[in-house]
């Protein structure tokens, strides 16, 4: 693909490997009832209500990234941060500056070279005119709820949780958005690519009363897995095809398995009206239950 961001610098910032592979062996398997809405709503209130608009290269974005890094760290996850360059442009009609953005990558130290693993991601940035409660503090909130549910519990495979920078568009083409997830896919080794069993993007997961499970193509084995997970979790869902407008697409367009959870239309989309009350904690809980059930 043209115009890919170059490989970013990675820096280790997390310390405690509280839930490292060895100590997880004695823990019980995680289940949907372990998902809590409190950490998800705390994220929505802080990101949308306190920090506000956070375009991927803005100082407010880095404050949001520091906050998410600290939350993962407090939950005992190890955190890497990947910096990558992003061009300036027009984001939903508003100018945004060129500069670096940042992916926050949390793991439990149990991903082994060549061994299967799973990824869950959500974009942390917003368009300039929106505090982004639903788009996408909701996704980050569910990501943190999943982190909390899983911390001291076993999953079927090692899991990596990623807050992506600069997902929102900075121009009209397919190469003008999803910068963070493309930078993340770019730095995966051939071995990591071969062993990735699925990536789920959480993007607008706090509106509506059924979880939207979307894939790029009509038939998608990973989407089927998420449908089965929703059924096990007792969460209402709807299935969608042709879904290419979130970070899972950076994986799929590079030949890797990816699906999106979320995208129910709502009035405040990409506007100053995307505020905390837009997000329904019950819908966050449904999405978190589906993800935990899949893990
Ligand atoms: Zn979004």
From TrEMBL:
It holds the Pfam family Peptidase_M28. Residues 103-293 form the Peptidase M28 domain. SUPFAM superfamilies: Zn-dependent exopeptidases. InterPro entries: M28_fam, Peptidase_M28, TAT_signal. One of its GO terms (molecular function) is metalloexopeptidase activity. One of its GO terms (biological process) is proteolysis. PANTHER family: METALLOPEPTIDASE M28 FAMILY MEMBER, PEPTIDASE M28 DOMAIN-CONTAINING PROTEIN. This is Zn-dependent exopeptidase M28. It comes from Nocardioides immobilis.
